[in-house]
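Page 42, continued from yesterday. The earlier attempt failed because a stray header line got pasted into the input along with the sequence. Redoing it now with the clean sequence only.
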Amino acid sequence: MTTSEKIILAVLVIFAVLMWLMPVVAAAYIEQQERKKRGEPDESKAQYDERQKLIRLEASSHALYALGGYLLVWMVLEFLDVLHWGPRTLTLLAAGLLLAVVVWNSECILRDAMLGFNQRKSESGQIIMYFSLGLCWLVMGGSNLEAMSGSLGAMQMLMGASFLIQGGLMLYARHRRKLAETRLDTEDGAE
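This time it went through. Structure tokens are written below.
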């Protein structure tokens, strides 16, 4: 593969990722604007305070940096003829998007911006969902390592591991929050 073909392929990969995200973002924005015009409040929507919104925006920029770094490393490895795009392009793109989602989600979990203040009661259910999805993806990936192509099984195992990590982070964040609440209660009781 020549250098110009590699550059064209890199631009196409970045364009494909942006084109994949654009309809989702546009649809969410249009729906939000339509609800505002009709004057319909969305009661099912999570309500975040300003601090949580700022943390989520900052986490979005970190996720974008992680995705850009991943694509940069991928391109450098391709130019050095260490990693070839050919048969693994879709798997490597999915892994990059998964990395961005995990970075965003993990930062929001650790900085207490994952759940809105009206969603605390469903936190245990979400932790169970993360762990069960992680185990399912790991089992599917393990069976696909032997039966199908190894890259698909590896991607499924990576997804399972990411769900397990995020479930563990949610458990850790909940434990840390409860410890802080306990400390506040004991300090208030001591006064």
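Notes: The mean pLDDT is 77.
Reminder to self: strip header lines before submitting.
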